[in-house]
Amino acid sequence: MSRMDYVHDGGRIVKKRLALALALVMVLSVALMGCGKKSSDNAQTDSGSLKGQKITVILPQNEADTVGFRTKMTKQFESETGIKVELIEKGWEAVADDVRGDLSSGGGSYDVIEFDNSWIAEFIKNEWVAPIDEYMSTDMKDGIVPGLLDLFSKDGKHYGIVWNNDTRFYMYNSKMIQDAGLTEAPKTWDEVAALSKKINGPAYMDTYKQEQMGTNEEMFVVYSFGGNFLDKDGNPIVSTDPGVKAAYTWLAQAYKDGVFGKDALTQDYEEVASGFNAGSFPLMLQAVPNVYANSNDKTQSKIVGAVKVADYSVSKTGNEQVVLTLPEAMAITTTSKHKEAAWKYIEYMSSKEMDKQRALQTGALPIWSDLYNDSELLQKFPIYEQFGKQAANSKGYPTILWVADFADIVAKQSQKIMTGSVPVDKGLADMQALMEAAKKKSEQQ
User: Fold this and answer.
1) Could you tell me the residue ranges of all domains in the chain?
2) Does domain 47-166+326-395 have CATH number 3.40.190.10?
3) What is the per-residue pLDDT across 118-155, written as a single tens digit (0 to 9) for each?
4) d(CA 121, CA 124)
5) Using CA atoms, how far apart are residues 175 and 184, in angstroms rounded to an integer?
6) 3-state SS assignment for residue 4
């Protein structure tokens, strides 16, 4: 759901979930960008026999890709394979509308589509996306971060390959922290509030808009207080879960005390990232990796050299470690008439070498496990060590069919609670009732 993701995440229909266990798996060989290697251990069609076929690919724009990496590599794919690609890139919401509209009316317009982690239950249930196991190589199955690969699967079948490892990380302006008389960034929410008093201003900024991006950030706060919106069976528990109440009680008081800027109710991810890189506040609680890269770019940042990445995240007591992960994948539609050509594109754009180049050129977080030990990447991004420690505690959206309603309810009701329009208990009771109605409606359809 991103889409800007701090540069790419912005308001999407809520994203994501998933515990991203970052195990570093050594891979014996890789499917390098478009060489003639076949796409799976089973005899698959070579790219040469697919020459002249045309596929249509629709994916969200990635604001982190300021160098046009995807477009250049798509043209390179066309040149090397002879497969023609119509690449459609739009804002995340526009892509979501187009994809959903097409698939719900029978499909046929697209071969490769955006597959958001918030869509997993719905798209697989409706048979809108095709299994890809027959195409996948052993290297790919063994080498991609397990959590990312397994998230987009069901009943032992894989349906998507992540193109955007949208995992968030705790970053901070070390100079502002030191100027405040601290030796390390806050570990608890109480310490965040204390920092705000020390600097007589907001300790952080975030987006709590009445959009999916707002839900993303409110989910992180709830998780970091040890709370959950739903139980393991997908039933709403917001009115009874003590962690949920503690989280919203803190948010309401923090809004009142100015612990975070009140512009959080209207700002989007890009505006938040720009404010951080301008030195307007010291903490970026859930930033995507490219924020770090941009913070060291003199053309985009006034805090070059000051940003550090923690190896922990902010939580209630320091023990409820969690970071938000909202990955997006590429999938093949069941209506595609050129599934093998579509897979060739996904395989090419997801190869380990391509993944490495994407990381080097755009600051994107890799999807291949052993790239976190790659010497060239570590030389440019030594913070991968901290990323790995935080990512081991990642969590995303619940896999439920009524996820769009879930995101809308959380975003709208959260603002009412934060601003004091309704007391915490009343706001959570209202949220509970709305979620129960949305779940019931989904079950009746």
Assistant:
1) 47-166+326-395, 169-324
2) yes
3) 899 899 999 999 999 999 999 999 999 887 888 899 88
4) 6
5) 10
6) strand
